[in-house]
């Protein structure tokens, strides 16, 4: 059906920690100087990408996933599109993210899968860090550290640099230096 690349229009998300780097580095027409995310491949309900060319021009990625599974090399259309690719501009500290496992996602938020991620660091400041978990040994210790605002005692962080890749799954992470 398709003999040319499919180009998708990114969806921009404003965040209090966002900035202007998406415009500066990628020449995106961002909505403001607090644009934190460009969802470049997304079938997410809060911002699906739109096909910009060819026979499917104007259709969103979730429609294409459901109605044209042969383009993806599969027949599975009863599940969510399995990928969300973002480019982030973290001009300030990001919020702490929670990565539920499959059981919690199914039971508590009625989603079929937990949250796994990978981050490839395109660029960063020299002293940049990423929080990769917490160091509390119990729920009580966690609550005490949060209550006292003792973030450096609570969170476990690692220095990051350009060109490294992190993969995150519930309870563990992997760091690959010089990944690509």
Summarize the structure.
The chain contains five helices and ten strands, in the order ββαββαβαββααβββ.
- In the predicted model, the low-confidence regions spanning at least 5 consecutive residues are none
Q: How many distinct beta strands? A: 10
Helix count equals 5
Strand line-up across the major sheet:
2-3-5
- How much helix, percentage-wise, in residues? 10-25%
How is this structure best described in words?
This protein is an alpha+beta fold and 180 residues long. 19% of the residues lie in helices and 27% in strands. The chain has helices at 21-26, 61-67, 102-108, 139-148, 151-154; strands at residues 8-9, 11-19, 35-41, 50-51, 85-88, 117-120, 129-134, 155-159, 165-169, 172-176. It is globular. The two termini are 32 Å apart. The mean pLDDT is 86.
Descriptors for this entry?
180 residues, alpha+beta, 3-stranded antiparallel β-sheet, 5 helices, 10 strands, 27% strand
Describe how the helices and strands are arranged.
Blueprint: E1 8-9, E2 11-19, H1 21-26, E3 35-41, E4 50-51, H2 61-67, E5 85-88, H3 102-108, E6 117-120, E7 129-134, H4 139-148, H5 151-154, E8 155-159, E9 165-169, E10 172-176
Antiparallel strand pairs: 1-4, 2-3, 3-5, 6-9, 7-8, 9-10
